[in-house]
Amino acid sequence: MDTILVVNAGSSSVKFQVFALDGDGRLRREIKGQMDGIGSRPRLRATGATGDTLADRAYPIESVQDVPGALMLASAWLRDELQLSPLAVGHRVVHGGPDYDRAVLIDHGVIARLERFTTLAPLHQPHNLAPIRSLLANFPALPQVACFDTAFHRDHDQVADHYAIPRGLHDEGIRRYGFHGLSYEYIAKTLPQVAPDIAKARVVVAHLGSGASMCAIHGGRSVESTMGFTALDGLPMGTRTGQIDPGVILYLMTAKGMSPPEVQNFLYRDCGLKGLSGISNDMRELQNSSDPRAAFAIDYFVYRVALHAGMLAAALQGVDAFVFTAGIGENSVGIRARIAERLAWLGVTLDPTENARHALRISRADSRTPVYVVPTDEELMIAQHTLSLLLNRHSSSRPKRERAS
Ligand code: AMP
C-alpha cells in the first residue's frame, strides 16, 4: 500500500496519521496515532480507520528520550508491525517566516532557513524541526515536506502585515503572520463542495479550539487574521492570553519583577480560560462547572469572539457567511448559540434545532448571513500538500519569495 505519513510534533508528544493513496490519486486516512509522555511515561497509542485500537503500549523512559526518538519508534512500529513504509512524510511546521507562502520539499538548505525562525516561535519550531533533521539524517532518500501554519496568510495586504513600528523591524521579521493557516486553507478548499454559494464570498471563519483564532477569507484567500507575530494574539485561548495591551507586559516586568522567560511562560500557559476561571483550560469542564468564575471565563470568550468578528467584518467590508470549526466550534451548541446571538447585528439568526443537531448550516433559512459548521482537517491538508510536492518534485525546494540573507 502506498502511504503518506503526516507528523505533528510538539514538546512532549508526536501525533501522526497515515494516509493511503488510492489508485485514482485520492487520500484515505488509515491510522491516527500518538506517542506521548516523552521523557516521562512514553506511550504509543494508535487507532485504525474505524477507530479500532491498533496499539496501546508503554515504553521504558530511556527508550524514548526525545521527540525524534519518539518518531523513530513510531516509524519502526509502522514498518515492522504493519509493514508500512511511507512514500513521503509531511510535517506541520508552525512558522514559515516571511519566506514561505506554501509547503516546501525539505533539504538541508530549507532546514537552515527554518531554523532562523526559531526565535519567532521558540515553543514550537524547535520541536517541529528536530524530527525532520533526524529523519533526513537517517533516511536521506525519504522525501519530507514542511507545511506551515503561516503560509495561507502570506498574501495579506501590506497594511494587514505590518505593526506600527519602524520598517527595519518589519524587515527583520516582526510582522503579523497569522496562524492556523492549514485549518483555514482546508476550510477555504472545502467550501466549494459543501457550501458553494459562499465559497467566493466574504467569510469569517472561527477556529475555536484549545488554540483559537479567526480569519477573514475573501474568494478563498486570507485577508486578515486575529493572530499576529505569534500565536498569542487575538482571541483568549485555553491557556494563552489573546490580545493584551503591551503595557501589561511592561508592568509585569518592571513592577512585578518577572523575567522574560517567566512572562513567556505566564502568557502561554497561565492565562486564557485557565487564568480567568482558575479552574480549567477546557471549555467542556467550564461549561459543566457551576462556579461563577467558569461562567465569567465563558462570557469573556464569547465577548471576544464577537468583538473580533466585528474587526474582521471591517477588514472584509461586510460579511456574507460565518463558519465555526475546531473543538469548540464543531462541538459546542451553547457557545455557538451565544456567539451567534451577539452577531445578530451582522444579520445572523441561528436555527436552534439545526444548531443542536450540528447541521452543516445552523442558521435559519431567512438569516441574512448564513452560519455553517465545517469540521477542519489540518492533517489531510498536510497529506495533500505532501502528495502534490511529491508529484512535482522539481522546482519546489526554493521558497517563492526569497529575502536577501
Ligand atoms: P481542539 O484543540 O480543536 O481539539 O479543541 C479542544 C477544545 O474543544 C477544548 O476546550 C474542549 O473542551 C472543547 N470541546 C470539545 N468538545 C466540546 C463540547 N462538546 N462542548 C464544548 N467544548 C468542547
Structure description:
The chain is of the alpha/beta class. Helices cover 38% and strands 19% of the residues. It is built from 15 helices and 13 strands. The chain has helices at residues 67-82, 108-115, 125-138, 158-161, 167-172, 181-194, 246-254, 260-269, 272-277, 283-288, 292-316, 326-331, 333-342, 352-356, 378-391, and strands spanning 3-9, 14-21, 27-36, 43-48, 53-58, 88-93, 104-105, 144-148, 202-208, 212-218, 221-225, 321-325, 371-373. The strands form two sheets. An eight-stranded mixed beta sheet has the order 5-4-3-2-1-6-8-7, sandwiched between helices. Strands 11-10-9-12-13 form a five-stranded mixed beta sheet, with helices on both faces. A hairpin with a 2-residue loop joins strand 10 and strand 11. Helix 1 crosses helix 3 (125-138) and helix 11 packs across helix 13 (333-342). It is globular, with a radius of gyration of 21 Å. Mean pLDDT is 94; it is low at 395-405. Bound molecules: adenosine monophosphate. Adenosine monophosphate (AMP) binds next to helix 10 and helix 12.
Features:
8-stranded mixed sheet, 405 residues, globular, binds adenosine monophosphate, alpha/beta
Concise summary:
With about 400 residues, the protein is an alpha/beta fold.
SSE layout and pairings?
Layout: E1 3-9, E2 14-21, E3 27-36, E4 43-48, E5 53-58, H1 67-82, E6 88-93, E7 104-105, H2 108-115, H3 125-138, E8 144-148, H4 158-161, H5 167-172, H6 181-194, E9 202-208, E10 212-218, E11 221-225, H7 246-254, H8 260-269, H9 272-277, H10 283-288, H11 292-316, E12 321-325, H12 326-331, H13 333-342, H14 352-356, E13 371-373, H15 378-391
The protein binds adenosine monophosphate.
